Amino acid sequence: MNVIKYPQKEEWDELLKRPVMNVDTLRETVCRVLDDVKTGGDRTVMAYEKQFDHVELERLAVTEEEMDEAERLVSPELKDALRLAHDNIGKFHASQRFETTKVEVRPGVTCWQKAVPIERVGLYIPGGTAPLFSTVLMLATPAKIAGCERIVLCTPPGKDGKVHPAVLFTAKVAGVSDIFKAGGVQAIGAMAYGTESIPSVYKIFGPGNQYVMEAKQQVSLHGVAIDMPAGPSEVCVIADENADCAFIAADLLSQAEHGPDSQVVLITTSEKTLTGVQQEVTAQLESLPRKSIASQALDNSKLVLVHDDDEAMDMANLYAPEHLIIQTDNYAELAERVVNAGSVFLGRYACESAGDYASGTNHTLPTNGYATSYSGVNLDSYFRKITFQHISSRGIANIGPAVAEMAAAESLDGHKNAMTLRMKSLSGN
User: Fold this and answer.
1) pLDDT tens per residue, the chain (429 residues)?
2) Same domain flag for 268 and 188
3) Which of 51, 177, 276, 311 could cysteine-pair with 306, CB 3.0–4.6 Å?
């Protein structure tokens, strides 16, 4: 890890840069695969599954028999853990329900909003080195609470042609409508355009590698919404002289093991803590099964010593991390000063892992600095807001002259006429 002591503010931008992702070389590939899926449907998706995931499929849809088999294979202990997490996630997201309020802005002019669930949503669950069944909970649970009519899930199968049983069981617990064996760009294309088996959706959620992220951004230009742009996972920890160095090191490594392009940052006001965290990271890394991956991520990571809390908070807000851990004695005070972050973990015992799995908050969060402008996935992500207004004759009298005046000033005579005709009808002229 790179150690930086007391950097000047003019150095912060350079210091906090993320690892650069070059998507130029993959953009052409993504575009070609998407075009192929758009025209070729199921046949093309299965062909790309053979090419990229090295599996031959007879069908894309997961069968009831496979669902039953998966349920038998998941241990009772994991089932209990998943149900606990699902309950917590459900409680937290249910608390976010929108309540319609009618507002009379002027006598006779009433405005309101209605929240309408997105009818068809697509959830992408990556495969790879670890089955991300936790992401199924994070994406499907709020979709179900929102009332989305159809929840479509795509995930790559293993080389045996089967989806990991924990993913399937979790999907059942969370209320997923349809599950398909499709990964990568071809899965994003299938959900965006629809195939013979996979229905098209209106919004796509979920993480993935650079190819998946590029595919999501490309389809978002053509009528399909996405949850957010995304990059590699990251965590920033703010710590003082009384912080637990072993805890901090474990938190940093928990993110570093995600992938070699992940980034972890420690900002501390204590040189003792900085040194202690260095030692703990070195010690804990040796016993980490994903040591090689974490080591590469640590090459991109920083340990920063700053003068005081003000600098620590200013730096963290500039970085806008996906995960922010505040392990200081005055964490409640510093929490009030957080402006840019995806999800915040407060105190000695609030490890980021809790939010990843079972505290109840959502772990699908903005990365790569997007926390300055994007929220993490929440109940509102699955809704559209439609506005309504009712205007009575009294309302026309109250706002009509202003509307006519503004329309005339913009030289939009048709707009002016639509209002002046109503005004004249009320005056009897």
Assistant:
1) 899 999 999 999 999 998 876 777 899 999 999 999 999 999 999 999 999 999 999 999 999 999 999 999 999 999 999 999 999 999 999 999 999 999 999 999 999 999 999 999 999 999 876 789 999 999 999 999 999 999 999 999 999 999 999 999 999 999 998 999 999 999 999 999 999 999 999 999 999 989 999 999 999 998 899 999 888 899 999 999 999 999 999 999 999 998 888 999 999 999 999 999 999 999 999 999 999 999 999 998 999 999 999 999 999 999 999 999 999 999 999 999 999 999 999 999 999 999 999 999 999 999 999 999 999 999 999 999 999 999 999 999 999 999 999 999 999 999 999 999 999 999 876
2) no
3) 311
pTM: 0.94
Q: How many CA atoms lie within 13 A of 190 on its CB side?
A: 33
**Would you say residue 383 lies in a domain?**
no
Please indicate, yes or no, if residue 5 is contained in any of the structural domains.
no
Domain boundary among 226, 242, 263: 226
Range 5-8, long-range pairs (CB < 8 A, 24+ positions): 5/271, 5/304, 5/305, 6/305, 6/306, 6/307, 7/304, 7/306
Residue 12 lies in a domain: no
* CB neighbour list of residue 13: distance below 8 Å, 6 or more residues apart: 318
Name the CA radius of gyration of the chain, rounded.
Answer: 25
Verify that 317 and 397 share a domain, yes or no.
no
Residues 255, 350, single domain; the answer is: yes
Rounded CA separation 54/183 (Å): 11
What residues are labeled active site? 322-323
Contact 188, 215 (CB under 8 A): yes
d(C-alpha 122, C-alpha 36), whole Å: 19
212 plus 307 within the same structural domain: no
Pair 202, 276 in one domain: no
Nearest in space to 206 (alpha carbons), one of 125, 323, 150: 125
Regarding beta strands 203-205 and 178-181, do their DSSP bridges make them parallel or antiparallel, or are they unpaired?
Answer: unpaired
Residues 311, 402, single domain; the answer is no
Residue type (1 letter), 119:
E
Q: Which domain holds residue 362?
A: 231-375
Verify that 221 and 292 share a domain, yes or no: no
